[in-house]
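job 3f2a | input accepted
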Amino acid sequence: MEDRDTPLTGKLVEGLYTEAMLLADEARSHFDAHGHDEREALSAGLRLGYAVESLKVTTRIMHVVAWLLTQRAVLRGELTRFEGATPDRRLGRAEPGDAGVIAQLPEAARRLVEASEELYGRVARLEAEMLAPPEPKPSPARALWGQLERAF
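job 3f2a | predicted structure (152 res):
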């Protein structure tokens, strides 16, 4: 990975990290305690879907947090940009939610699923932008050659 401008700044990484940690705390609180009564009111099949979706929320958030910690290390010079972009340090794959199940979940659980998918999607787009090959720079020699051709 060549050294080039990156869309990441310390402020962006810290903002995303704070958002991810707040969402993680909210998800833990809801799925461990507050959502208990909601979960018990669901059918057995939907309770299983609820459990699966809660695991997906946690997985998405933890992948985001791990990736952001890597980006922090890169920005602090603890890792090179090349080291931070190795496959084992990239954003982990997270399965999308099951729309059929999500539609039947209580509002608070649905909101957590959607928030985790949205956060994961933003971070995935940032990573894709960082890993995209750089735009080729026009050759100064070719530009000069073009000027010469147009002049004559």
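job 3f2a | Residues 10-151 form a domain with the Helicase, Ruva Protein; domain 3 fold (CATH 1.10.8.930).
job 3f2a | closed
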